[in-house]
Amino acid sequence: MKILILDDNKHRHDVFAARFADDERVHCYSYSQAIAALSDSFDVIFLDHDLGEFHTPDTWESYGGKMIEYTGLDVAKAVADHYRGWAGIDDLPRVVIHSVNPVGAPVMRDVLQDCGFSVVWDPFSDDSKCEDCFGDGFNMGLNGPEICGICHGVGRK
Ligand SMILES: [Zn+2]
To answer: How far is CA 4 from the centre of its chain?
Structure first.
């Protein structure tokens, strides 16, 4: 299984590396790394929202001199564009939004779902929550996701 992981946080990359130790992983820490990686194809794409990455807007005045932040939403839109017209819907990568951002993450999910992707939002945590992944004693909890992101990533759910 080939996996793209986008996050600006090294610790999260380490957790993903442990969870998917036997898989081929491409670790991206920024918008531009993720865009470059998209020239490859992937089975699963894990996306964060807040990347702490800023750039100067094209029309500086219109933004009052503020820098614009690249987010996972920009990457989600690029993923949708990249796979537009892809051979079949079954060939699309599964997507997991692992951002904890309660505003940004659902927008990313909706953008990709509207383009035919199978997407779940499972806010990142160090030790996840799912009986299928971690056996009895774990549960998703009241505020947990409907579908475990790891299960979705491996195609279990
Ligand atoms: Zn699971």
So the answer is: 8
Nearest to 118 by CA among 145, 155, 82: 155
Tell me the pTM.
0.86
CA 29 – ligand 1 centroid, Å: 24
Calpha distance 59→10 (Å, rounded): 33
Q: Which domains does the chain have, with CATH numbers?
A: 2-153 (3.40.50.2300)
For residue 85, give both structure tokens.
């017209």
Helix residue ranges, H only, 56-142: 72-82, 104-114, 131-134
Question: Hey, what's the torsion of the CAs at 117, 122, 125, 126, to 10 degrees?
Answer: -50
Distance 55 CA to ligand 1 centre (A): 36
User: What's the pLDDT tens digit per position in 70-88?
Assistant: 899 999 999 999 988 776 6
State how far the alpha carbon of 47 is from the alpha carbons of 88, 118, 156, in Å. Answer: 22, 13, 19
